Automatic annotation (TrEMBL):
PANTHER family: DEHYDROGENASE/REDUCTASE SDR FAMILY MEMBER 7-RELATED, DEHYDROGENASE_REDUCTASE SDR FAMILY MEMBER 7
One Pfam family, short name: adh_short
Protein name: DHRS7 reductase
Listed PROSITE patterns: ADH_SHORT
Length: 235
């Protein structure tokens, strides 16, 4: 549809709390009642992290997994039931390059994204009887967004003081366009990132020993920057 042709009946906005899993079935039913079907689910809710594990309360890790992982698969479960009945649909999950590598100051965030990668890659293998249902994982690198303003820190009550400059990150509209292209072409996994971050992804995939060496060197500097209040140049 052209944007100009969209009418009031073509748009439905619902408030949704991913951590309130008991509300996900009703939200799914509201969408189905309004539109009659769900063609695409884009899982894009989540929070990042900036804190060292040794300084971080465990309830922060619980909250990260509750939001980024359990909330996502809860909503997916209700929508997937409908897609299985129709035998078609696309489930697009915004993971992260942190779902295929590790990085300091983001151990909980990385864990949640690794969990999503493992879950959806496994789910795909359970849907071989439904070839028209696509499971698509999008792994963005650093992208201009508000995510840095809402990161988890050492405890649930603390916010990040210095969010830094985002001009070096991929523009939001380019990330969206590449996500849509990946969705339209049913890519199982897409790494959406500029260089040099994309090259680091390839290192983790094909030369992990070199990746560990590089991340140890970069990570040490990143931790030093974090402790001195300087925001480093990678996510």
């Amino acid at each position: 549809l052209e944007i100009s042709s969209l009418g009031e009946k073509d748009i439905l906005v619902l408030r949704l709390d991913l951590t309130d899993r008991s509300s996900h079935e009703a939200a799914t039913n509201s969408v189905l009642k309004h539109f009659g079907k769900i063609d695409v689910l884009i899982n894009n809710g989540g929070r990042s992290q900036r804190s060292l594990f040794v300084d971080t309360n465990l309830d922060v890790y619980s909250a990260i997994m509750e939001l980024n992982y359990l909330g996502t698969i809860s909503l997916t479960k209700h929508v997937l039931n409908h897609m299985i009945q129709r035998k078609r649909g696309k489930i697009v999950t915004v993971s992260s390059v942190m779902g295929i590598m590790g990085a300091p100051l983001a151990s909980g965030y990385c864990a949640s994204k690794h969990a999503l990668q493992g879950f959806f890659n496994s789910l795909r293998t359970e849907l071989t009887d439904y070839p028209e249902i696509s499971i698509i994982n999008i792994c963005p690198g650093p992208v201009q967004s508000k995510i840095i303003h809402n990161v988890f820190t050492e405890n649930l009550a603390k916010s990040l003081e210095n969010t830094g400059d985002q001009s070096h990150k991929m523009p939001t509209d380019r990330c969206v366009r590449l996500t849509l292209v990946s969705t339209a072409n049913d890519l199982k996994e897409a790494w959406v990132s500029d260089q040099p971050y994309l090259a680091v992804c390839y290192l983790w995939q094909y030369a992990p020993t070199w990746a560990w060496w590089l991340m140890n060197r970069m990570g040490k500097k990143r931790i030093q920057n974090f402790k001195s209040g300087v925001v480093s140049l990678f996510r």
